[in-house]
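Recap from last week: sequence in, structure out.
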Amino acid sequence: SRSPGRSETRAATGRVFGPSQGRDRRRTSRRELGARARQALLGAMPPKKPGAGDKNLKSKSPAEFFLDNKGIAGFENAGKSLYTTLREFIENSLDSAESIGVLPDVDIAVEEVTLGEYEDKIGLKAHVRKDNALYADFETEKERAKRLAAEAKKSAQEAKAAEALAKAKDKGGKGSKGGGKSVSTKDDKGDKRDAGRGKTFFRITVKDNGKGMAHDDIPNMLGRVLSGTKYGVRQTRGKFGLGSKMALIWSKQTTGLPIEITSAQPKQKFCSRYVLDIDIEKNEPNVHKAEKIGNPGDWHGAELSVIIEGNWTAYRNKVLSYLRQLAIVTPYAQFHFKYVSAASDARGNVDAMFRRRTLVMPSPPLTTKHHPSAANEDQLLVKTLLSQTKEKTLVNFLHKEFTSIGKEHAARLVAELGKGFEQTTAPRDVTETQATRVQQLLSYARFADPSGECLSPAGEYNLRLGIMKELGPDWIASFVGPALACGGHPLIVEACVSLGGKDVKAGHNVFRFANRIPLLFEGGSDVVTRCVQRLNWGSYKIDKNNDKIGVFVSIVSTKIPFKGTSKEYIGDDNVEIAEAVDRAIRACAAQLKGKITRAQAAKERRARKKSAIAVHPGLRARHRGDAGSLRGSRGAAVKAREARRGGDDRRRRFQRGETLDGGPALGKRRAWARAGRKRDSGDCAAASGGTRRAHRLGTGAGVLHAEQGGSERGHAPDAHRIGARVFAHHVPPHVRVPAIRRRRV
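Predicted structure tokens:
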């Protein structure tokens, strides 16, 4: 074990000392040379034998990892897995239809599968129990007696409540206090006990009219975890290549049954049909059956069917709420949902149609490049792009591989990099140290926000239309913010705030959407909920406790910063998103404040008019009588006056020079005078009901004039108009008859 010599040290360190480096060589201490040599010798040592390492060192395939950690993908329990499976299939269908510009038409079916049907599918025969005490549903005599006593007690309580309710109805009352509570005929505890003991299985089928899948790509697209077509800088509902595969993993774990796929692409003469599952250890598809069948109807799209364990009772409301919110954010799509129970009673079945409300569909999202600010988030981004780019110069690399960098701007950035960088430098010649310098410059330099043309937001029109269709609010305000860069990715925030509506409870009702996906879970931790709670609604004349407030926020981006892979919520720690959401909600609240202010002013005007009517007795009598029809507007008063005078027919006869009582024709002026006398005499005969001429006065002036009993100018008008209502005086009007001129011959 001698120490290495000088020649061995040189060979080990890989350093050759020339004559010009002799001085540096002499300055190097012997200790440093020894350390370098030992390090080099250790690096050159052969690896250890396989049996010599840690026996616990293992590796897992992606499928095995997600099988052991289903919760991070949204498959925590049977009910949540049923909901997540439906959600993943539906979102894939929407992406598939929108990618080819077709209005989505999605059919969803959830069918309960009985235990006998499931056993037939897996090849099990009916088993006759030999020892009942081994099973969880076995009941001893003592337990049976206790259960029967509890059922009898509950039946007596139900009969007593029904009798009390019948007596209350006979008396015409509303029943005793607390009688409004619904009484269930089922034993809730028994239901929970049965649910805990037995499993329920469901067949989920989703069919769409999208672009379908190529025949040879189907096994890898559905049978290999982390494989998909949605990777890249592009807005999509899915991102990880995980959703459909997790449904297949859950099916394999709970039922052992494969998934059935039928798919056809546009203008394809055949349909691809596969039956496959996934090899968990190898993360590879296991194809049971593959064939091509005819496509006589030129159908295109995909149909996926899988049997999984689920819990419909616990997640029924979540599924229907998801579909309802999906109809809000995608009113151009049509969803037909059907649930079929295995029980003979069809009262539990659901058949819901969410019809298409518009034919206007957002433009499809486009693939884009990274924003330069992404270099601050990803330290490896610049190095990765330098190794993959096809550009020949550094200027073209910055201009083509990033957004918001023009040609001149790229030249300025290269000049700022300093020594060792030229505009004609090839990206492949950039060293790691130089790449780090480029990354630092992009992190600290200032760039314009992205244009947002690559994104596909829902749009104000579709968002408002969906809200009005599903909720029918009284008022609604909308706002779409400008595109901004968030973590190097373009992002747009849309918001709507509504007041009133059906099926909306008092207080805040927050509806969250991300890339047009409804988010139903973890709402308390979401950035939208936090912004709604921080906002001072009272400053916008909105009562946050009693008003029915609906807050709808849709965020679209090429990368949504979800917390976890299950895509449940967006954290409040992202300052850029929090500020954008807060601005959007405040803008909508400011619009509603203006509407509320104008509505309150109109209400106060109507109250003042009503109080003015109550001051004068004649005005009150007129208001109770035939003037009630004049309450709407000036046009209503004109119509009523014309009806008393004979309508349009009398006016036409008068203009033609005819007498209004059917006599011989006279000149127009003479007929006018005669009609005036006749009309005035009729008005004097019914002084309390009719009126001919009205003076428009303000509310206060009209009341003062009525209280003084006439006009200070000497003439006595027969009526005064206050607002849109008319009241009469007893003084007959004075009619001036013009002189009749004779025509010269």
